[in-house]
């Protein structure tokens, strides 16, 4: 018995490779769908804040800001929309360079 075109051994190899490729494709798609969605590269900026809202919006009256207000732009702050310094850890871990928006009076 050889490895010719009609050989049972060759047919078994073709079936085995096909089954393995199919299983790998299904596994990859399942991994991508179920596991990687919450990981870093889903394209979402906001991973945790008010996820039940269709849009996160905050509004403040200028008169209530005081002399200085510091707002988060990295979406990592536990006090969002205010900055709590979490951008420093984010920048260290990712190599990013985000920082807060600071609004202050000219002489403050
Ligand atoms: S914590 Fe987000 S910019 Fe500071």
From TrEMBL:
Organism: Phrynosoma platyrhinos (Desert horned lizard)
Taxonomic lineage from the root: Eukaryota, Metazoa, Chordata, Craniata, Vertebrata
The protein's required cofactors: [2Fe-2S] cluster
Protein's recorded name: Iron-binding zinc finger CDGSH type domain-containing protein
Start and end residues of each stretch annotated as Disordered: 89-108
Highest rank taxon of the organism: Eukaryota
UniProt entry tagged with the keyword Transmembrane helix: yes
Transmembrane domains' residue ranges: 13-31
Pfam families recorded: zf-CDGSH
Signal peptide coordinates: none
Keywords carried by this UniProt record: 2Fe-2S, Iron, Iron-sulfur, Membrane, Metal-binding, Transmembrane, Transmembrane helix
Domain Iron-binding zinc finger CDGSH type: 55-93
């Amino acid at each position: 018995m050889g490895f010719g075109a009609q050989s049972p051994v060759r047919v078994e190899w073709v079936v085995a490779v096909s089954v393995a490729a199919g299983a790998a494709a299904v596994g990859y798609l399942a991994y991508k769908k179920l596991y990687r969605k919450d990981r870093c590269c889903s394209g979402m900026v906001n991973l945790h804040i008010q996820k039940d809202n269709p849009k996160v919006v905050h509004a403040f009256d200028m008169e209530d800001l005081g002399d200085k207000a510091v707002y988060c732009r990295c979406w990592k702050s536990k006090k969002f929309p205010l900055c709590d310094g979490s951008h420093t850890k984010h920048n260290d871990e990712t190599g990013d360079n985000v920082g807060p928006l600071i609004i202050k009076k000219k002489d403050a």
